[in-house]
Amino acid sequence: MEIPHNVTARPDTGLYNSKIGIWLFLASEVMLFGGLFSGYIFLRLGADFPWPEHMLDVTKGCINTAILILSSVTVVMAWSSLKLRNFRHFQIYMSITLLCALGFCVVKAFEYKAKFTHLSCELSNGLVLEGHDNDDKGEGNDIVYKPSRAVFPIETGEIHFLEAVLPSNEKDAEAKAVVSLKVPVASIDGNKIGVYRGDDKKIKVALGNSEIEMIAAKLKGGDEFKIEDEVIEFTDWSELAKVIDAQRDVKKRFLRAENDRRKYAGTVNQATLAGVTAVPKKLSDSLETTTALAGALQKFFSEELTLLVDTKGEPVSIKPSALRNQDFGWTDKGATLRDGTIIEGEYLQKESKLMLAVDGVDLRRLSPTPGEYDPKIMKQRIEASGFAEQFPTIHAAWEEQFAKYEKKEAEGDHVTSKELYYAKYHGEHGDHAEGHDAGHGESHAAGESLERDFDSHGLPIYEIDRADVRFLSTFTPRLNTYYATYFLITGLHALHVIGGAIVLAYFLFTGRKMYKENPEHLANRVEVGGLFWHFVDLVWIFLFPVLYLL
Amino acid sequence: MASDSPEAIRKSIKLYIIIGAGLLVLTALTVAVSYVHFGSHSMNVAVGLLIACIKASLVGAIFMHLNHEKRLIYIFLVLAGVLFVALMGLFIFSLLDIPGQNLFGY
Amino acid sequence: MAHSTTATEAHTDEHHHDHHDDHNPGFVQKYIFSTDHKMIGIQYGITALCFMLFGFFLMMVMRWSIAYPNQPMPEWLTMFMPEDFLNRWMPVAESTGGRVVDGQVYNMFGAMHGTIMVFLAVVPLGFGAFGNFVTPLQIGAPDMAFPKLNMMSYWIYFLGGVLMFASFFLPTGAASTGWTFYPPLGVLTDYFVGSPWLTGQTWWLLGLVLLITSSLLGSVNVITTIINLRAKGMTWMRMPFFVWGMLVTAFLLLLAFPPLEVAGLMQLSDRVFGSSFFLPTGLSANNEVVNISGGGSPLLYQHLFWFLGHPEVYVLLLPAISIVAEIIPNNTRKPLWGYKSMVYGVLVLGFLSFIVWAHHMYLTGMGSAISTFFQTTTVLISIPSVILLTAMLISLWGGSIRFTVPMLWACAFLPMFGFGGLTGLPLAFNLTDLYLHDTYYVIGHFHYVVAPGVIFGLFAGIYYWYPKATGRQMNTFLGHLHFWPSLIAINVVFMPMMVQGIAGFHRRWYNGGISYEHTAEYLWLNEVISWAVWALAIFQLPFIINFFVSAFFGKKVTSDNPWNATTLEWATPTPPGHGNFTFEPIVYRGPYEYSVPGADKDYTPQWEAPKKDTPKDVVKPDTQAESDEPKA
Ligand code: HEM
Ligand SMILES: [Cu+2]
User: Fold this and answer.
1) Architecture of domain C34-283+292-296
2) Residue B79 and residue C251: Cβ atoms within 8 Å?
3) Which end of chain B is less enclosed by CB atoms within 10 A, N or C?
């Protein structure tokens, strides 16, 4: 069966099927990107914080714009070549188009990468510092504890969260962290039931249905069996995961037994309420057995697993991203991870300090009313914030810029709040060599310089107390709604580029056969693919000024 | 379609290159213009979007052949365009008309 | 059945399972990864009916909790749920020994009832099943314009459905923040867990994105098919109204869904990447300020959601109303009254439905200028709706009505939908909506539209096209046993809800309002409603039996056109083979030429060539004859 108008246009509409299809799809894409842009405007008009403007790398944006324009030309040339029945030219133009797509993605990748490692740190007084942390991992320094105990939520916990905190032996031979877990083990007739370490040092799990049936049978028979706590040491995380899985299974079995118990108890209750004095023997038997079983099973699992942690004196570091809450998830007694795992121990304030190589400062959040920057109030606030004393190098850089634009403003030029209160600092090699260890090692009261060092680019490194940090984030969707929109729109756009490129590549590499059979069919396909490609370019034409320039 | 004949296509190839170059120039213009202040931020936005619209029209009209398309396709696009304007327009409208702001003088 | 084979195709015969010669596609290709629009339609239909049953079951459990809050569920409800799931979510109460629904479970079931009914049951049934099965047949096309894409739409929908269903068995359970999924609640529910990816809330969003993708592909396909694959002579104004309905529905899906996709992606980003699209500054949970940047807007979500949300009601409605518009002329043996005004009505309706959305948001503190705007458009949109309904009511006038089973459902649709529509008017005016918003009045109103309205329409369609799809009739007695009790029960379900709503019963109360003083007078209605719901459930059994048993043992139809209908789907063999038509269909006249004066029978099919001696009837089989273009 042939679908009509697959290749040739229908006379009255003048269109072949896929051309209608692609235009409909593009109409829907108009609404997709329309929704995104509308959302952007909605968020921007309603923003209660200084909206980032001119924050992206315009050069990279320009390069990508040019790349997309070029590819738009070549893709339409590829189609023209097919129309002129010149397959060779089609191949050449299409290849250039694909190279452009590749180039676009590479530039985009670099642009994203820079943001993933760049930090923005808002202090509790409203100063916003931008920069890099020591190891440039883009997370901010780890938060350091001397742990003693960890409580693991069995329902929703994930072993990899623990793993992120407590280094295993394999990973780091120096830090000999040993985690041990107290689990109950029962023994009947020389057989062990529960989770235990066998003679061969392997973890054994004996908690299947047959074992539980055995427990039930023994209990029914009136047997008491000894349950002892066994402490199992783990150095291998996969072993721990196995135990946790077993515990989850037992929890399910426990819930079953517990529900049965309540069912029987309920029936007895109802009977008593109804005035039945003699509870049937069968019922009371069932109640007894299930009560015992539920009780026994409960011993095999506890709502939370308590792990004893021994790091042999070594502190452990928690990545800020693993914390439930950067500001509130940790205290001097412990931290709560995102999955609910609680790490208890001693908080090491000094080791947990944030060391930030600062390359920019934003003072606009010091303003009491977002969007308004009364020079008098700003001056007062900046002085009160201790900016000058605590961050001398950056302050000097900002002051220089401020003076310049203040003068401009006085001359009647238009000056933006960003020019006045947002400064980038690019570092000065050598200049600050003598200040290298100026404040190093000194204790510092509030108001004293926090400057400790300079990094290889000459950027000053500041030592910031965790307690002074209100909000810390890389330049990712988390930072604010501007970056969230930026990543969402450009990310979707990049997906379109990749999707379009795959389709075009398919035409390029498999087109020859179709070209031989029916060149018009291939031309149609390329036209349709090209229309999509132009649309992707068209979206970027709006995206570029909206996100990069305005 | 006349525009599908080989001669017409050969002719339009030149046009594609010219338009491509024009788009590059307009891109440069957008960037340049974004560093000039036009009195208010909204003016800057207007100018930036105006240039973007011109570029978009060129891509649409020439590369996507919207300068000589079938009626149906215009219908699709007008529909999507109108709804897009409704979406964005009403979003902005709803954001501006918040009780207490007396937007329309009541 | 005469299976006149076409010259080109050896496998026209799709129905008989025993033909396993080399020319037939294998089982997998024929029934699972089929590209035949009819098989895909049937796949959509059966999947959607299963989901509908599931959504219905969730609601039965909810109704238990409302009527008998905190009381143990009876065996006939618990027996359908897996033991471990029950133990986890509805543990036995110590005092009574029975299982109790609590607020948490009610929220989960309520959210999923709404979601499943709207996105997984009614839209796939109306648009996916009927749209796929009937549209190409009615316009005389061999298949959809893009058969592979069609198959993909179905499987993406299926995947989305599986994801939603499977989320019930995650440790956190399925989504529980209403089918509207308003943030910040939607974002912060199960926000602090091991992996944000492994929560019901997140799977709901992922499922939604898949469902939207599927709908978009489907709508591209349907529109292209209608525009480009119409048979010779099938001009715009000769298209059956059903096809118009599908065209407008597809445009609604195509253009309204993307903003919801945006909303879904933004909320996904909020949940898993920690962004704040919809989270305002200073948001706190558990008495702690959440560690996010803030600065977002929950209102933005509501705008994006309802930009789809309102057109979505028409996506639910239009297939059903268009089915009814097919069945009425067929059973009154009379042309559809005001066909053209209905067509224009549905186009206007489609367009207006895009600009009424904020009538769901009167209580969000919007200004009076904008709420006046939305109030006006909302009232305007009732005009085309009334045109559609009135045209169909007038169509009944003076007809010699055959009360076949499909016609019964169609007839019931009219007043039920009418009632649902009229009760919507008080919700359109912001002054009355202040009082009625989020009460059971709203629940009653929209359920009148979607349950006795839309679902009745869809039932009508199933009974109507079943003979075409299977070659057998559904049993009439079972049909009656399905229809009459359902009609009565469903009114006993929803009419009291209107009363309760006006009395101030709030929606989403898991205990039906026992804790309030002002509800005391009408609490008894809770029990009435619930029993009616369970009765309703029982009277779906005749349908389920009828549906499956008739496929194998039903009365075989003796003609390709058992209802003596005029539209093209009845010109195909029964059931139609791959490629549909055994001759090239040419259309000579409008879709509803019933009881044409002077004709020898009371229906004149679209494909019947005019007789030689009546030359004024001859219309050139040329699609250019009329120059209307589609708009929506
Ligand atoms: C006879 C069939 C039905 C009955 C008896 C029924 C009953 C209910 C009930 C009791 C609620 C919960 C009210 C509340 O607590 O707020 C509800 C909610 C809802 N139902 Fe139905 N329903 C039926 C069919 C449908 C259908 C066919 C649809 C959609 C096409 C639907 C869509 C919804 C939606 C969207 C909600 C709101 C869920 C939410 O609160 O987020 N229902 N229904
Ligand atoms: Cu609405």
Assistant:
1) Up-down Bundle (1.20)
2) yes
3) C
